[in-house]
Amino acid sequence: MENAAIHDLFVIGGGINGCGIARDTVGRGYSVYLAEMNDLASGTSSGSTKLIHGGLRYLEHYEFRLVREALMEREVIWKNAPHIVWPLRFVLPHHKGLRPAWLLRLGLFLYDHIGGRKLLPKTQTLDMTADAAGRPLKKLFSRAFEYSDCWVNDARFVVLNARDAADKGATIATRSTVVGARREGDHWVISLKETHGEKRWDVKARMVINAAGPWIDEVLGGVLGKSGAHNVRLVQGSHIVIPRKFDDPRAYFFQNADGRIIFAIPYEEDFTLIGTTDRDYGGDPRDVRITDDEVDYLCAAASEYFAEPVTRDDVVWTYAAVRPLYDDGASKAQEATRDYVLKTEGGDGAAPLLNVFGGKITTYRRLSEHALEKIEGFLGKKGQPWTADAPLPGGDFPASGFEAQVKALMRDYGFLDDGHARRLVRLYGTRARQLLGDATEASALGQCFGADLYEAEIRYLMRYEWALTADDVVWRRTKRGLRLSTGEIADLDAFMSANISA
Ligand SMILES: Cc1cc2nc3c(=O)[nH]c(=O)nc-3n(C[C@H](O)[C@H](O)[C@H](O)COP(=O)(O)OP(=O)(O)OC[C@H]3O[C@@H](n4cnc5c(N)ncnc54)[C@H](O)[C@@H]3O)c2cc1C
């Protein structure tokens, strides 16, 4: 038994929803233990399109509650994490033969007016024969609409929520698989096992939160022993990354003839991100990978718009993830609700359980506030909602203050070039200074593993952000994997293994 104390809450899953709930609850005074079987954000939460968005497309499915809540969150999240979140303008070409212009205008009118927009600029119409946004496209589009949403570094969003939760007293146990949970009267005994080792231990808690994303049914069945649990609809979405296709800082929103849409988004300075697909998934979520058909679909959809076609040979990286949607019985994957559903059971002497279905990265904070209403009903009220106005670690500077942060970092660390300083502020915000310490020259940052990735950053990630392997660093805490060679990544992995407990 690792800990004889009874925690208030035990959270299964270190994705955005688990980490968001852990942060919110510990900040209100509950004691919290979170277990993640792999790395933080190793599930769906690092495989999203990375938009803090209302979801223009969901208006077609009459998801007004979700769209309004999501739109309202854009500026809240941007203000609380201005390092990893920034505004992005989207260009939506009007395609004759697809949705009529009046429908797009109506959707965007709602988008502008129901979402509490204060800082983000409003929608405007573009003349694509004159606007720079028309340049990389085929000469088929005379008109487009330009509107606002935000971009988020999804994997870091999760880690920063976990960091804040830990700073406030939560236990965050990564590489720890929940293998069983049983009720003992008014509390739970949760059994854990090291994911890559043999160590086993138990933790007691008054309430369990099942935030296992795509594994939610597996947890209900395998861990909690409920037979026939089937509440989640797994819908795969995949993305391709290609060398930068256009210079414009805006992203594109392309409609496809099949009624779906895809985005083409400026990515990691030198690349373009294209996605996503929407297909039911029947396999193990651990094994999800982009299929050849999906690559072809995304290349073909983008090539309908770009003058220079996108081909398989352009693809430098891909990723795929599974949406853990609540199974509302919709016939098509793209029509299944994107809203979240919170289901509780227990109480009256039986230890309570809360299951979290669906949810967007965008609405994780509101999902947590709604979860708290349920939690309070079982455990009693503690504290007030507080996360709307609380910066995430490193995000304690004004929403418009990114450039000033870069300038100040370059002034104080004269050896940083513009690209390196920008990258550090984008990833760590004000905590970049903690990472750099009292270094006065690059050599003080230790070994360089390539592409500005120095030992000081790795040590910071291992000490404060639960990074254990090169994969954690190059594909989740950073995206340096796009620039490092296989050999460089192997050297990093060897360095990290040698320094795990250092
Ligand atoms: C292709 C795609 C694009 C998307 N785009 C967007 C977007 O642009 N904007 C947006 O807002 N949302 C988007 N979403 C939705 C969003 O990414 C997800 O809704 C969200 O990440 C789900 O988070 P989660 O915490 O519920 O699940 P996850 O991130 O999957 O977290 C669940 C965690 O539980 C862990 N776990 C499971 N079982 C156990 C166990 N037994 N013990 C310990 N740990 C366990 C897993 O390892 C996993 O890390 C997108 C989703 C997809 C798939």
UniProtKB/TrEMBL annotation:
EC number assigned by the record: 1.1.5.3
GO biological process, one term: glycerol-3-phosphate catabolic process
Residues in FAD dependent oxidoreductase domain copies: 8-362
Keyword Oxidoreductase recorded: yes
One Pfam family named in its UniProt record: DAO_C
Keywords, sorted A to Z: FAD, Flavoprotein, Oxidoreductase
Chain ranges of the Alpha-glycerophosphate oxidase C-terminal domain: 387-481
Catalytic activity line of the entry: a quinone + sn-glycerol 3-phosphate = dihydroxyacetone phosphate + a quinol
GO MF annotation, one: glycerol-3-phosphate dehydrogenase (quinone) activity
Listed cofactors: FAD
GO cellular component: glycerol-3-phosphate dehydrogenase (FAD) complex
Gene3D superfamilies per the UniProt record, alphabetical: 6.10.250.1890, Alpha-glycerophosphate oxidase, cap domain, D-Amino Acid Oxidase, subunit A, domain 2, FAD/NAD(P)-binding domain
Keyword Flavoprotein: yes
Family statement drawn from the similarity comment of this UniProt entry: Belongs to the FAD-dependent glycerol-3-phosphate dehydrogenase family.
Name of the protein in its database record: Glycerol-3-phosphate dehydrogenase
Species: Aquamicrobium aerolatum DSM 21857
